[in-house]
Amino acid sequence: MDIYARKKRWKWILFLSALVIVAISLWYTNTLVKKIAKDERNKVRLWAEAIQRKANLVNYTDNFFEKIRKEERKKVEIWAEAYKKLMSDDVEKDITFYFSIVSENTNIPVVITDENFKIRFSRNVDFNADSVKVLEGDLLKEYSQFEPIKHSEYNITNILFYKESKVYTELRSVLKDLTNSFFSEIVNNSLSVPVIIVDSTQQHVVASGNTNENLNNPSVLEHAMLAMAFENTPIEVKLPGSGKNFIYYENSFLLTQLKYYPYIQFIIIGLFLLISYFLFSISRKSEQNQVWLGMSKETAHQLGTPLSSLIAWVEMLKLNGIEASMTDEIQKDIERLETITMRFSKIGSEPELSKEDIVEVCRKGIAYLITRSPKKVKYTINIPDNKKIIIPLNPHLFDWVIENLCRNAIDAMGGEGEISIDLFEDDKFVYIDISDTGKGIAKSYFKTVFHPGYTSKKRGWGLGLSLSKRIINEYHSGKIFVKTSVINKGTTFRIMLKNKV
Predict the structure, then answer these.
(1) In 3D, which of 200, 179, 199, 180 has the Cα closest to residue 65?
(2) Given 212, 217, 373, 462, which is the most exposed site by the fewest CB atoms within 10 A?
(3) Domain final residue pick, 227, 252, 277
(4) Listed residues 233, 252, 271: the one ending a domain
C-alpha cells in the first residue's frame, strides 16, 4: 500500500508542478501578448488618426482649389468685360488699359466666333487654330461649360467662348489623384487592417481591403460593418467628388491571432501532456504484460517438476498400503496444484472459453475452500439449487478469481468472520457478490486495490486482485469492482459476466 500511496502523492506533485509550469508559461505569454497587442492597438490608432488628418488635408486642398477656381472665374469675367469694352469703345478713347488686360491672358483658353460659330480669334487653346475654322461638336461642348458672352456692334455679333484655365485643370487632376491615393492607402495599408469604405447610405461599398468576405451580399456587409463598429468607431470623412464616406476597420490579423494565441498554446500543451500520458500508460501496461507472462510461464514450469514427483510418490504410498483417506486428500492437493499450474500457464495467452454451468463451477470451488478455511470462518452460500446458468467460461481461471476473493476476505477478517456468496442473474448479466465482515476498504482505494503490488498485508505480493481483474475484464469481457465497503464492517466485491451462450 505504501508504494501506491507514494505513487499517488508523486502523481499529485507532478500534476501540480505541471499546472504551475503551464500557468507561468501562459501568464508570461499572455503578458507578452498584451504588450504586443497594446503596441498594435497604438499603431492602429495612429493609423486611424493619420487617415483622419489626411482626409482633412484632402478637404483643405479641395477648398484651396475651389478658391483658385473662383479666382480664375473672376479673371475670366474681367477679361471678358475688358474684351467687350475693347470692342465697343470708340477708337478715340484710350483703350490701352483694356488691351493690356486682354493681352496678359496667358492661361485661360478663349475662342471668339461669329454668330455661325466661325472662329475669328483664339488664345491659349489646345487645338490647331490654323486647321480648325468652326467651333462645333465636342469642341463646342468643351468650350460651353461656362455661358458664352455675346456682343453685337455695328450689326456684327461676336460670341466669346472660354473654359477653365489650364492651371485649374491641372490642379483638379492633382486633387483627383490625391483622392484616389487616399482610398488606395486606406485599403492597402501596411498594418493589414481589414477596411471597408462605404458611401453615405452605408449600403454600397466604395472600396475594401484585407478582407475575404463577400461584401456584395447586403447581409454579409451589414454583419461585417457591425463587427467592425463593435471594435472601433467608424471614421466619417467628406471627400471631394464622392461626398460623405464612412471608413469601417477592425483590429489587424496579427492582433486577432495574438488574442487567441494563449488559448491555442494551452490546448497544444494539454494535448501534448494527454498524448504523453497515454503513450506512457500503454508502454507501462505492455511492460506489465511481459512481466505477467514471464512470471506465469516460469511459475508453471517450476511447479511441473515437483508435481511429477508427488504423483509418483502417491502411487508408491498406495502400493505400500497406506490408508486410502490419506492418499485421497494428498491426491486432491496434487490435483489442486495441477489446476494452479494450468492457471499460470494460461496467463499471458488467450484462454479458451467453453460453455460451462457457472453454478456448478462456483459450488465446486467454494466446497474446496470450505474444507481448507479456518474453522471460525462461516460461509453463507446463496446459489440457486437445481438450476443451470450456461455462459462462456474458463473454469480454471474463474475458479482462481473466487479463490482469490475468498482468501482476501479471510485475511481481511483475521481468520474469523462470515463470508457471503450470492449468485443471481437478469437478462443481460450474471452477478456474483462476495461479501465479508472484515476491516473494509477506504473509498479512495476502491480502484487502487486492483493495481499490481497493492496489498494491506505485511507479507503479500499484491497480485491476487490484479490477476482477478485481468481474468474477468480481459479474458471474460466482464467486470469486477468493489460494490460497497464500510470501514470495520466489511466489503462486497461484485463480478458481472455477460449472460449469453
Answers:
(1) 179
(2) 212
(3) 252
(4) 252
Q: What is the mean pLDDT of residues 141-166?
A: 78
Residue 389 domain boundaries: 351-498
In a domain, 124, yes or no: yes
User: What are residue 319's phi and psi, to 5 degrees?
Assistant: -65, -25
Amino acid in position 243: G
Query: Do the domain assignments include residue 439?
Result: yes
CA 339 from centroid of its chain's CA atoms: 56
Round to whole Å and give the CA distance between 432 and 496.
7
Return the residue matching grid coordinates 460623405: 244
Which residue in 197, 201, 229, 200 sits closest to 211, CA to CA?
197
Q: How many CB atoms lie within 10 A of CB 9?
A: 10
Residue 273 lies in a domain: no
Distance, CA of 76 to CA of 291 (rounded, Å): 109
Q: Rounded CA gap, 167 and 174, in Å?
A: 11
Q: Are residues 46 and 127 in the same domain?
A: yes
Give the integer Cα–Cα distance in Å for 150 and 323: 157
| Residues 476 and 412 both lie in one domain | yes
Predicted confidence at residue 343, as pLDDT, reads 66
Amino acid at 126: D
Of the candidates 449, 439, 470, 467, the residue with the CA atom closest to the CA atom of residue 8: 449
DSSP state of 444: G
pLDDT at 195 over 90: no
In a domain, 172, yes or no: no
Residue 230 cell numbers, joined: 463593435
Closest to 88 (Cα-Cα) out of 148, 159, 162, 154: 154
- The distance of Cα 385 from the centroid of its chain, to the nearest Å, equals 60
Question: CA-to-CA distance for 500 and 389, rounded, in angstroms?
Answer: 9
Q: How far apart, in whole angstroms, are the C-alpha atoms of residue 228 and residue 213?
A: 13
pTM, rounded to two decimals = 0.47
Say if CB 238 and CB 244 are below 8 A apart.
yes
d(CA 220, CA 201): 16
Cα–Cα distance, 277 to 394 (Å, whole number): 34
Q: Rounded CA gap, 486 and 284, in Å? A: 32
Running DSSP on this structure, what letter comes out for residue 474? I
Number of domains present in the structure of the chain: 3
pLDDT tens-digit readout, 316-371: 777 777 777 777 777 777 777 777 777 666 665 667 788 999 999 998 888 888 88
Query: What DSSP assignment string belongs to 312-339?
Result: HHHHHHHHTT--HHHHHHHHHHHHHHHH
Whole-number pLDDT of residue 495: 95
* Residues 238-250, mean pLDDT to the nearest whole number: 75
For 57-61, which contacts have Cβ atoms below 8 Å and span 24 or more sequence positions? 58/175, 58/178, 58/179, 58/182, 58/239, 58/240, 59/237, 59/238, 59/239, 59/240, 61/175, 61/178
Please state, in angstroms and rounded to a whole number, the distance separating the CA atoms of residues 152 and 168.
30
